[in-house]
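Appendix B: complex inputs.
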Amino acid sequence: MRFLTEKMAMGCLTCLAISLATLWPALAPVIWAEKTVAAGPVKAGLPSDLFTASAPPNPVDVGDARKTAVEGKRIVVRGQVGGLSKPFADKYAMFVVCDKRLAVCPKGCANPADFCSVPRDQLMANLATIQVVDQKGVPLKASLQGMNGLRPMSEVVVQGTVAKSDNNVLIVNAENIYVNNKIVLSP
Amino acid sequence: MSAIRYLPLVVKYVLRYRGRSVLTIGGVATAMFLFYAVQAMHHGVQEATEATSKDTKLVVYRQDRYCPFSSNLPQDYEGRIASIGGVKSVLPIKIAVNNCRTGLDVVTFRGIPLGAVDNGALDHVRFAEGSIQNWKQRSDAALIGGRLAAKRGLKVGDRVDLGGITVYVAGIINSPEPQDQSVAYSHLDFTQRASGNKPGLVTQFNVAVDDPARMDYVAKAIDVEFRNAQEPTSTWSEKAFVARAAADIVEIVGFARWLGWGCVIGVFALVFNAIVLSVQDRIRDHAVMQTVGFPQRLVAELIIGESLILSLTGGLLGLAAALGLTLWGNLSLSVEGLSIHVQTDAASILVGLVLSVFTGVLAGLVPAWHASQREISACFRAV
Amino acid sequence: MRILPFDYSVRNLGRSPKRLILTVLAGALVVGLVIVAAAFVRGMEQSLVVATDRSNVILLAAGSEESLERSQIPSGTAGLVAGGIGGIKSRLGVSYVSPEVHVALFARPEENAQAEWRTMLRGVTQEALLVYPRVRIVEGRMPVPGKDEIMVGSLAAEMMAVPQERLNVGSSLWFANRSWRIVGRFGARGTVMDAEVWVPLTDLQIATKRDTLSCVVVKLGDAEFGDIDLFTKQRLDLALTATPEAEYYASVMKFYRPVQAMVWITALLVALAGLLGGFNTMFAAFAARIREFGMLQSLGYSRPAIMLSLVQESLLASAAGTLVASLLALIAINGQAVRFSMGVFELVVDHRVLIFGALAGLLIGLVGVVPPAWRCLRLPIPEALKAA
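Resulting structure:
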């Protein structure tokens, strides 16, 4: 009887251990929170001369460009990457710039790039979208974030063609982008 | 023979079984810390929700709404409310909050008009730093409640992002009103713009009445005034308003109080267990003491004394930990832009200490009585 | 190493039945508390993270990313999105695009009733059923616009703190100055929608006097999140931001982390208090067996072997307590609805929670025995044999 008791108890413990060991590979990633790893940008088909070493001449600030830009005409616009909490498009060659004369968020701001201290109406009137497109005018599938030092709050000068300009939006198809790596407008 | 003379002996008993005493005191301290923490939350709920005879404030809210995002009253209601009999003053407030949900890290803005400040809307606050003139000079200025400032380490002159709204800290204020401690008072039009709302809309009106006894009458009169308006109102006393908004928290804290009382029972069990073991180990000692002339009563008192020391020491440690948490932690539960502060009060501290003493004495009673009743020869035989 | 027989540990447990029962009950209490805390956290996680649809993207107002209730976007956004973004899932010409209004307000049983019931309303169109496949109509039908009809979720009664029968199909609620008849009930188990009341979108907009939406929810087909994001950046005038539904609810979950931490800390503090008390009992119990340990050592069993036997004893007792706690949790706690902060979720006692409880029980069994046992085994054999 004692033999049976001992063996049954050992058997139960062994079963429990085996079950845990078998289930563990399935359970371990489930028990600890999964972290979704974003896929890295896919760099495909960006023009080799997209980024320039010097700024194109006679840039216009974004706020002024919003008033004067004409669809189809060439333009050189100057601004800083920001105006949204995530100014770079996910996986597309596009980012949003705002007029560099706008007030920068103070220290301690969770995300200075969203320019949350600027009244919304004023912010909307000073934003533009910069995109790099293919022959058909479709934005290329390659994120620009990090390329040539381009990141939120970077000062940029963009030369290109006005794709759309009205009271609500300004979209520029960029041919050349200059990133002023000496200046990153931070609080 | 007075038992007090033998206090050093009792202390020696406690120290003799150091490990056991440390474990018991640790357990009692943990349980009493929980007790004080629950009492602190309960005090916060009471302070925020229970009306007193000194209350004179009403809150006029959009009818059937319970989140600041959904209450939008026309600002021009102010004049109509002010003309109702019994109303002393009306303060339109635009509430901007980053989240309506219950949380520990919510920032609430109260946008108030400049004119209201000139009419004494903030007369009840005291400035720890800064000034009202400082606040008036900038449209993005804010007066930060003391608790919020302490929590975020803010000082006058800082420009800071709070809950998505960037403000200039023009002053740090303290106020007898619980809700003022965790909010930021900003300019009304600034808050309206920051919330993305059209100007001319406010979340609520805070109404002061001239006679507290007429609060219900004035509240009804206000609701009747706007019954058929585009935005009908519901008017509550401020405490009732908070109680309504924080109903879930009030319920949870009420439930948690049972946990607090359970902790007191746990303290009793811990100390009782420790004393029983201690008495068992000292059977021979007690026999010797009675042999040399210690009366049975004194033996019992020494055991109760030991029990009291364990319980009181643990209780004091638990109290110190709870005080540290509430004083330095500056904890507040926020819901729908309203705050419930977690803070210990003198009454809770006194109750806790009395309970520590009481449970200590109670836990030692039975073992003490048994030990004192045992015959000397039985004690020596038991060893 | 020669180890003691397993049934030696088993028989030792039976030496003092009273102590065994107390130990099992104490272990059950502590593990039970840990399971309740884990069930609370898991239930919250389940409704906010696990049950969200990973192919849905929410378009809401820029700056309102923390709270849908705060968001206001133009009414025509849904049409612009459906027409402007390729690759959105569609079927028989109908795009899986759901324009929505989220409003929190108090409902009443009838017009002049004093009772107020906290309600989360969602104004929807028929497309909502396409975008949220977890939603199933369990009784009645979808409400029709223009007829003051509504549909309630299966946990809406818990949200309002009313009996389930009060929200039967055919009964009515009063809010926004009119009576609304319940024509259907839906289930969306484990999601935040389960506690909501669904209203035809246009009816809710009219009733709450708003011409804006809270959000537009889109189900991805061939399109990726990047395509939706691209649209928001090309149409800055709409002031939209796109966020995967999973990410939105994860941020809500993150908001609740301090509250969850409080729940955990409370449970662990109670467990700690119990453990400290248990140490004393263990010390006393082993102190009474010092001579026995001395005897075993003189028979040739090493200290590690005796320690192993004591650990087996403790683990058996705590395992029994864990079993009791787990059974009680499955019977009494699993599925209980908890109303908390603008929503309702069910306590979840699933495999994760039970394994966590089992691990807690194991830890208590181990930690509770090693220090007292070590203390008692330290003595040299002659001293141990002489111990009283």
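Residues 3-49+248-382 of chain B form one domain.
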